[in-house]
Design a protein that fits this description.
The structure is a single chain. By secondary structure, the chain is an alpha/beta fold. It folds into 2 domains: 165 residues, TolB, N-terminal domain (Rossmann fold, 3-Layer(aba) Sandwich), CATH 3.40.50; 215 residues, Serine Threonine Protein Phosphatase 5, Tetratricopeptide repeat (Alpha Horseshoe). 53% of the residues lie in helices and 10% in strands. α13 packs antiparallel against α14.
Length: 436
């Protein structure tokens, strides 16, 4: 009997990685230092998140969403539900003496009512055996992925950073996240965080993978306008790094190229990784509007409302509720004073929707100074959110967009991203690959 039990235990331990739940969603919570939330602790947790996020087997919530919830006392207690988590990692950095310190961390399973610690570990730090913080992060990454039954190909950053520069990077990153969380208007925060990461990279040469590669791909497309190569590059990046911003970039391109099923699938995955982004939820709503999925549209709008009651979200809620066809109503200061005010305030929330705001506020004129702020990789094959393709304002805007949008200089065919027509390939794009 004992032999049978022992054999069962051994068999269970051998096959556990292959039979573990395949839908794991993880958040790395801010680390504390001497029981306090500090810029270094927040920055280190964000960098640890980016390292774990190189996995294909685990969905890892973005650092901004995590900090928006965890640094809000009202939401922090319900963070597992708010962020839709199955697991989280938290930790503490403690100074034990003048020459020694330690970092303790744990992985907690919150997928059941009774939370359970999966693993708890402590790394001793001493002056006698100094270990670079990047090496500590990578050691923790391997252990955490192992605790999550992640036996896919282990990828870590190949570039080793100067220790002093890396510590300064963590403190700067953490300071910005803390400052950003305290600001109002959640919709602006994601754009601000993206811009900050770009500026920080230019100053330090440090950026989470594959962000630098994505920037290079987008820059190359802006120069050569090879939409087929751009689409294939985004497909590859989003598939290899499903926790990265390449997923949202692919979603937007797929929507512009009329690969609507791929666009919806990618936006839904982006919503899982960016659970506090109202703009991602609005993007899900818009693609469902085009696909004529009224129930899904209503659900996505409701989620956007829960994520951020901002002027931009409020406006699109109004637009969807007041018009049967779901298109944006004509707005002027005289006819719709309250909505007009929403739009004036909403413009700064999203440069991508800048043209929508201009079209609504300036019925007969377009403010070119605002339109040119639109990112150069946006094709603008489709109008802004919730606007009909035959809306006269959209038709009028196209001649202005022709000056800045690559779409008018491209021959875009139906086979630009042929693999997107393969329903199975689309469904498997972000799926865990535990057999790697």
């Amino acid at each position: 009997m004992a032999t049978v039990v022992l054999g069962s235990v051994l068999l269970y331990s051998v096959y556990l990685p292959e039979t573990a739940p395949k839908q794991i969603t993880l958040a790395v919570l801010p680390f504390s230092e001497q029981e306090e939330i500090t810029p270094f602790g927040v920055g280190f947790a964000a960098s640890l998140r980016d390292s774990i996020a190189l996995s294909r087997d685990v969905a890892v919530v973005d650092s901004l969403s995590t900090n928006l919830v965890m640094l809000d006392k009202e939401q922090a207690s319900g963070m597992a539900h708010v962020l839709a988590l199955t697991h989280f990692v938290d930790g503490a950095i403690r100074v034990n003496s003048e020459s020694a310190a330690s970092i303790e961390y744990r992985v907690v399973n919150v997928s059941h009512p009774n939370w359970k610690e999966v693993t708890t570990r402590e790394i001793q730090l001493s002056d006698e055996e100094l270990k670079p913080w990047q090496a500590i992060r990578d050691e923790m990454t391997v252990a955490i992925r192992g605790a999550l039954y992640d036996n896919s190909l282990l990828r870590t950053e190949t570039k080793a950073y100067n220790e002093q520069a890396y510590v300064a990077y963590l403190e700067t990153l953490g300071s910005f996240l803390i400052e950003l969380v305290e600001k109002p208007a959640s919709d602006t925060k994601y754009a601000a965080f993206d811009a900050f990461n770009r500026t920080l990279y230019e100053a330090t040469g440090i950026a989470p993978e594959p962000q630098q590669e994505l920037w290079d791909v987008q820059s190359k497309f802006s120069e050569d306008l090879n939409v087929s190569q751009y689409a294939q590059s985004l497909w590859h990046l989003a598939g290899e790094y499903p926790n990265s911003s390449a997923v949202a970039a692919l979603a937007q391109l797929a929507f512009d190229l009329n690969y609507l099923e791929l666009a919806e699938h990618a936006w839904l995955h982006a919503a899982r990784v960016n659970p506090q982004s109202a703009l991602v939820a609005l993007s899900v709503a818009d693609v469902r509007r085009v696909l004529d999925k009224p129930d899904g549209l209503e659900q996505a709008l409701r989620i956007a409302t829960l994520r951020a009651r901002s002027d931009l979200v409020d406006y699109f809620i109004i637009a969807s509720e007041k018009l049967d066809d779901g298109s944006i109503p004509l707005v002027s200061e005289a006819s719709h004073p309250e909505t007009f005010k929403l739009l004036e305030n909403a413009f700064e929330l999203s440069k991508t929707e800048g043209i929508a705001i201009d079209l609504l506020i300036h019925e007969d004129q377009l403010a070119e100074r605002r339109i040119v702020q639109i990112e150069p990789t946006r094709l603008w094959q489709r109008p802004p959110k919730f606007m009909r393709v035959d809306d006269p304002r959209w038709l009028r805007a196209q001649r202005y967009l022709g000056q800045i949008s690559p779409a008018t200089r491209l021959e875009i065919g139906s086979g630009t991203l042929a693999i997107a027509n393969d329903a199975e390939a689309v469904q498997q794009l972000f799926a865990p690959r535990r057999s790697d």
